Amino acid sequence: MVIVMKSKAPKEEIERIKKKMESLGCQVQLTEGENQSILGLIGDTRKIDPSQIQANEHVEKVLRVQHPFKLASRMFHPEDTIVKVGNQQIGGGNIVVMAGPCAVESEEQLMTIARIVKEHGAHMLRGGAFKPRTSPYSFQGLGEEGLKLLRKAKEETGMPIVTEVMCLETFDVVAEYTDILQIGARNMQNFALLKKAGKSKIPVLLKRGLSATIEEFLMSAEYIMSEGNPNVILCERGIRTFETYTRNTLDLSAIPVIKEVSHLPIIVDPSHATGKWAMVEPLSRAAIAVGADGLIIEVHHQPELALSDGAQSLKPEKFGKLMHAVKRIAALV
Amino acid sequence: MVIVMKSKAPKEEIERIKKKMESLGCQVQLTEGENQSILGLIGDTRKIDPSQIQANEHVEKVLRVQHPFKLASRMFHPEDTIVKVGNQQIGGGNIVVMAGPCAVESEEQLMTIARIVKEHGAHMLRGGAFKPRTSPYSFQGLGEEGLKLLRKAKEETGMPIVTEVMCLETFDVVAEYTDILQIGARNMQNFALLKKAGKSKIPVLLKRGLSATIEEFLMSAEYIMSEGNPNVILCERGIRTFETYTRNTLDLSAIPVIKEVSHLPIIVDPSHATGKWAMVEPLSRAAIAVGADGLIIEVHHQPELALSDGAQSLKPEKFGKLMHAVKRIAALV
Amino acid sequence: MVIVMKSKAPKEEIERIKKKMESLGCQVQLTEGENQSILGLIGDTRKIDPSQIQANEHVEKVLRVQHPFKLASRMFHPEDTIVKVGNQQIGGGNIVVMAGPCAVESEEQLMTIARIVKEHGAHMLRGGAFKPRTSPYSFQGLGEEGLKLLRKAKEETGMPIVTEVMCLETFDVVAEYTDILQIGARNMQNFALLKKAGKSKIPVLLKRGLSATIEEFLMSAEYIMSEGNPNVILCERGIRTFETYTRNTLDLSAIPVIKEVSHLPIIVDPSHATGKWAMVEPLSRAAIAVGADGLIIEVHHQPELALSDGAQSLKPEKFGKLMHAVKRIAALV
Amino acid sequence: MVIVMKSKAPKEEIERIKKKMESLGCQVQLTEGENQSILGLIGDTRKIDPSQIQANEHVEKVLRVQHPFKLASRMFHPEDTIVKVGNQQIGGGNIVVMAGPCAVESEEQLMTIARIVKEHGAHMLRGGAFKPRTSPYSFQGLGEEGLKLLRKAKEETGMPIVTEVMCLETFDVVAEYTDILQIGARNMQNFALLKKAGKSKIPVLLKRGLSATIEEFLMSAEYIMSEGNPNVILCERGIRTFETYTRNTLDLSAIPVIKEVSHLPIIVDPSHATGKWAMVEPLSRAAIAVGADGLIIEVHHQPELALSDGAQSLKPEKFGKLMHAVKRIAALV
Question: ipTM value of the model?
């Protein structure tokens, strides 16, 4: 951490801050210039609150040097984390594709789609039973009934299940059925939910919030890990920018960044990122080419009848084409 | 709602969509051009999912004409909503100032600050007992102990309390103590929490999410209202943009927009928006000048010792100056 | 400037960088920690290119401590700059209102509007003769004919003129007629144009680019000033964010920030920021309340016939109301 | 175009607007609902200014249905445009790599790098002679001397040249030397420069502005094309978002979008997008995988001595590795 003092900061004040930082266990080196003094802090500064230092009226600014996360950091855990789900492995060079409908709508719908994605080579089945919707008037999911259908589809196809957990109240029921607990973008900083997931043993698929920085994203992973659950799979699903042609802007740069600073696996959700089925395949290719560990894709056999997100769901043959393209690129990377 | 067909959409497909929309209770008017056809829908389109229509490959785009919210809309409720809290009124031309520390830290700290803000004319006391923090290693609040201290401060000063409720698990305990339930920016789309708050009778202070559009903000208010609680106070607290000089970018344009489309009161939080105490007073003046119904301000007698957000907390005398400036502008607007 | 070394940077490499920085005239202080070393640089680091240092593979990151601008900085010029235009003064506590049509369309149109804004108390006349338009098919302005009409309006009303200069080719003709050279948002980093304006003696109204940080904005002012023209008036006119309800997001926080770090006057353009006439008055009030030195406002007596930007132009009586409100707030601030 | 009237718009006003739109050559279909009326316009609406209609106080909003560009649109030019430069073809399935230093610094530097990139398979040589720099104190390029060196490198290596043209004043000298005129991100809406480039016969590489929407980007291409130059190559180079880990956010979604709505070729600049050499290769792979027509890459044999953008320049062997990876992916797509 670096503390930049204002140009006219009195000597005593600088000395006072230096002493305080030392009392918190840091080494402090003072660099004094004509106009400005800088304090360089070395040691574990994760527990120092920059805001508290910045409150001092003689402080110009406080610059962080270290990442604020530790368990999620590659610095302290150089090798890739591999999350095991059933007989699947996520991370460490494996490419995993999770596919299925946005929402579970009926037994017929789910079973039809589950068979299709299985046949085309998907490794896991996605499907929402509890759906976060912007409007209270939209379809909110089948609830536990949907979870039961997911279990049925798992029994038939052998694919592990990934489904969203939206709140503490329904946490246990979701946890009873699912193989991966999905925490959605809107809940990325629902800290109570993160802690609860951290106390569980089930792997967590954590989606990046719409306006979350990469650092905040990893801090949310840190929340889960600090409670004892190391099995976190990250998911980039687009950030909010000024561009409105696509629903969000898929930030593929985040993949190599996260691979550099963290050991956690990261997959990409091109369906939610773009909101348009026609863009799902090219962005899936790009995601694998950039180094992602997998994809999560929405597939529907009748998207124009889907109860949610029809516009971004791939029809079966298009999903087949995508799987083919992805495999060929994966073989190269 | 307007459905724009692709340039080569077959006639039968256009006719089919027209019929389907009519079956959903809408009047549909077809405008056919040389290159493009447009379907104009009239009626209550709030329950039609644009994504489902967009899934049709012959559809170019779907444009919404109506706002998707109803209870929060001024169209169906032309007069301003006034929320009553104790003997205070929020909305309808009253200016309400909520002030206090970011977090309740100790009895001495809270009582000291409560007395100061009361003396300077604050109407309500703010203070966090359960704190959402980006880092799991940061101070997370005193919990119920903090709520008890808030009650004590209320008893002494007579000021109603506003404090954050973070999750379903601690909802009831917070609800027992507080006069206004604050829902933070990160929880603006925590739909389970919104529904729970909607079932309560306690007024809700709903903060705008960091990357929430005005429409999404009002949809979250709609969630609360659709469960039966009409007492929603909105709070603009800055949106996330590329500018890093201030923590967030306070969107004061949102105030006149929301006053136009909604009847709900809206206040402004310049402390969180800027993250810098020196900017709180000028932006408070601007907030009142633009037409906000009040302010929520962080005050601390020793900001450099604050356990959270010290950098944005006003010292007592600065808060006094702010109150003076705000009152004079309020008298004009 | 602070250079953070990677955790395993070899000692010789650290020493080599230290020497290089010293050879560039900086004092360098090394802080060595267990995991990480930090180099603190003191002295004039404005000419050191952080990118060059960052190219070293042992460097983690380079953090700037000083602002990169000097002439525009309040540190070296503590008192407010006051720009004189005719008998008007901009900056130093004066409130100046520039008003007029978006584009000069005809003699009748310009003279009508000029008289109206003069009557309501405007200090200067705005109007575009050369118009930057997103579409090549839109009205591009009357050119020199428009400048002649502006001169005529100035002769009759006595108001100095502010009009946009778009390129080097038409620079001299615009400079011949105008009292203030307006450089538009899209040209904020048209460095050739900035240098040309810097060589002129005419005051420059420099608009903030749609996605310019405050620092970049001031660096563009620095370009003008470094060529010898100290008469720069800044103009905040909204930045581009995800919010689409308003055309841009007016960043009023930028006003106190710029007042703190720079001595240059700054005015606000609420017409372009919002794109909606109904929001111009409330945001004008807020702009003055937050500390801006003035406003630039679009006024049109027949906005529904305007050849550009009709939607954001105020009708005469609404402008009168705005002037009244602004004067009362200005008296307080 | 669709005009949505306010809920209480008087009938005569609706009729008046309908007549006016018809007088501008559009067919107009009125859809009347209980609360709201909608006017659907069919015909060439590119020359209608939505702002003018929106100025009417009875108009709620104006929604565009057609893209505002025509020459750049695939609707009127279904087959891919192929731009020929020397014996290279850009667009239509060819993958072109332009590589070289950020800035031409000296004969030795340029010749060294030119030979290296040629040897590794680059098709064209990039290098800046006139450099747009945020700071007036940074290296601004060698000017015509740099152009002469580029010509020399072209003569030796046979690679066509791409270099930036910054302003009207130096347009002719740059045009004399270069094979492709590069228009930088900051000049994307420098309309005078676009028009000048449109009057030239030299192919133009148009970079997307930092905060330009895809539509604005294509409108800038339309400016060039409407002056008679059809040889426009687009370049995605990152947009500005809240994320600060990378310099900009590379918007790879823009590639399939532009391929859908336009016939122009588009390449990707991962060097400027990320600002970090370590991310250039993965994003280059992704760019080709998503369907881009090529890349523009910064290479420097001594990046830590580069006079600009050293941090994002690839060393020779890394560039070789990139070329290898890109070719393999290109073979698949």
Answer: 0.94
